[in-house]
Amino acid sequence: HDLDPRAYQSLLKQGGKKKLDALLDLFKGTGPERVKELQATDDLAEARSAARALKSSAANLGLAALEDTCDRILAAKTWTLKDPLSQEAEKKYRQGMALLMQARQSL
Questions:
Q1: CA 84 centroid distance within chain
Q2: Predicted pLDDT of residue 1
Q3: Are 105 and 42 in contact (CB under 8 A)?
Q4: What's the rounded Cα separation, in Å, for the pair 56 and 81?
Q5: What is the enclosing helix (H) or strand (E) of 104?
Q6: Phi and psi (nearest 5°) for 43?
Q7: CB–CB of 65/95 below 8 Å?
Q8: Would you state the pLDDT for residue 58?
Q9: For the chain, how far is it from start to end, CA to CA, in angstroms?
Q10: 106 pLDDT more than 90
Q11: Is a pLDDT exceeding 70 seen at residue 6?
C-alpha cells in the first residue's frame, strides 16, 4: 500500500484538517530537499540522515511505500551518487504527495 489508512485516519483524529494541512505544507518543502540530498551525495551517513528525516515525515503522514524505501536506504551497506534508491525515493515521494492531496480534497 502506498498510503496507510490507519496512520492517515489517526492523524486526522489527532489534529484534524488543520494539522494535516500544516504537515502537508511542511512536507512539500522538506520532502524535496531530503530527496535532493539523497541524490546529491555519495556518503552513506549523509544518505541515512536524509532517509531518517524523510521516513519520519512519511510515517506521520501514512506514506507506507516511501517509508519502506527509506528503510531500504537505512539498511544499505553502500551508497553511490545518484543511487537507484534515491530515484525510487523521489518517485515514492511524488506518488505519496499525489495520494495525500487527493485524499485531502475528499475531506
A1: 16
A2: 62
A3: no
A4: 23
A5: helix 84-105
A6: -100, 120
A7: yes
A8: 95
A9: 20
A10: no
A11: yes
Is residue 74 exposed (0-12), middle (13-18) or buried (19+ Cβ within 10 Å)? middle
> Which of the four pLDDT bands, split at 50, 70 and 90, describes residue 2?
confident
In the structure, what pLDDT confidence band is assigned to residue 16 with cuts at 50, 70 and 90? confident
The b-or-e profile of 75-97 (16+ CB within 10 A means b, else e) is eeeebeeebebbebbbebbeebb
State how far the Cα of 81 lies from the Cα of 1, in Å rounded to an integer.
28
Nearest-angstrom CA–CA distance, 73 and 48: 6
76 near 42, Cβ under 8 Å? no
Count, residues in the chain? 107
Distance between CA atoms of residues 47 and 79, nearest Å: 7
| Per-residue pLDDT reduced to its tens digit, 19-71 | 899 999 999 999 999 999 999 999 999 999 999 999 999 998 999 999 999 99
Instruction: List Cβ neighbours of 80 (8 Å cut-off, separation of 6 or more).
Output: 42
